[in-house]
Amino acid sequence: MSDIGSGDEGINSQKYHGQGMDAGGNNFDSGQQPQEQELATKMLQIQSKRFYLDVKQNRRGRFIKVAEIGADGRRSQIFLAMSTAAEFRDHLSSFSDFYSSLGPPNPDNVPDDGKLKSEMMLKDNRRYYLDLKENSRGRFLRVSQTITRGGPRSQIALPAQGMIEFRDALTDLLDDFGTDDGGFKGELPEGRHLRVDNKNFYFDIGQNNRGIYMKVSEKVKSNFRTAITVPEKCWTRFRDILADYCDKMCRAHQQNAENHQGGPIPGGSGVRGGPSQPAPSSSDIDTFSCNVPNRI
C-alpha cells in the first residue's frame, strides 16, 4: 500500500525551524531557548516516512518530541509530557487492535469525515486528538496537538501498519526514563475569555516544573498575542493590588459624578440641588464592578 496521511495534513505540516519546547509543552522562541540535552533518540522508517522519537531535557524537565519527516523532506512535530506519552502508548494498543479487526478498505463504506475511531487526551490546558482515518491512500492515525488558544494545531500522520512498531519504540523510551511529570496532580481550571469593546483577553492556567501559572494574553492581531505570566504563589497579591486600584477608581468616579451633579456647599450642610446624601461605605461598593446601591 502506498504512503498515506500526507494528503490530510494540510498546512500544518511545515519545514522544521528548530523550535523548542518547555516541559509543560509550550513552544518558545529560539532566541530564548534554554539549553537542551538530548537523552535518547529512536528513528523509525515506516513506508516512505521517517519518525524520530527524542527524549529531551532542559531546566524545566523531560519531554518527548515526536517528529515526522515525509518523503519530500517536510517536517511536522508534536511534543508530549512523559505521562502523556504513556497514555498515548496505551491508546496505540487499542487503536491497533481495532485496526486489526477491520476488513479490507471499502470506498463505499467510509464515513463522510473519514474517521474510523477517535480518542482525546487532555494534559493541563492542552488537548491531543487521535483519529484513525481512511482516505484514498489508505488508513492512518492522525495525532493533533492543540497549542495556545486560537492558534493552529500541530499534527503528525502515522501509517496504520506502523502503530505497533511505534508503540514498542515509545515503550522502550518510557521504560528507560519513566512516566512521572511531578508537580500538581489535580485537574487545572479551564481557560477563560473576556471581551471588552474591541479587545479580547484570555486567561489560561498551565503547569511546569516551576509550578502552576496563569497566562494572561491579549489578542492584538489575527495571529499574534501579547502576554504576561503570573506564578500561582503571587495570585493573591496580584488580586489585592488589582482590587485596590478598582476601589480607588470607583471612589474617583463617584467623586467626579458628585462634582458634576453639584457637590457639598463649602461651609454648608446640604448639596446643591437637593438634600445631602451619606457617602457610600466600602461595604456598599462592589469593588470589581464599581456598583453602588441606588439611594434615590
From TrEMBL:
It holds the Pfam family PurA. GO terms for molecular function: DNA-binding transcription factor activity, RNA polymerase II-specific; purine-rich negative regulatory element binding; RNA polymerase II transcription regulatory region sequence-specific DNA binding. Keywords: DNA-binding. Residues 264-273 have a biased composition (Gly residues). SMART domains: PUR (SM00712). InterPro entries: PUR-bd_fam (IPR006628). It comes from the Eukaryota. One of its GO terms (cellular component) is nucleus. Belongs to the PUR DNA-binding protein family. This is Transcriptional activator protein Pur-alpha isoform X4. It comes from Bombyx mandarina (Wild silk moth). The gene is LOC114248687.
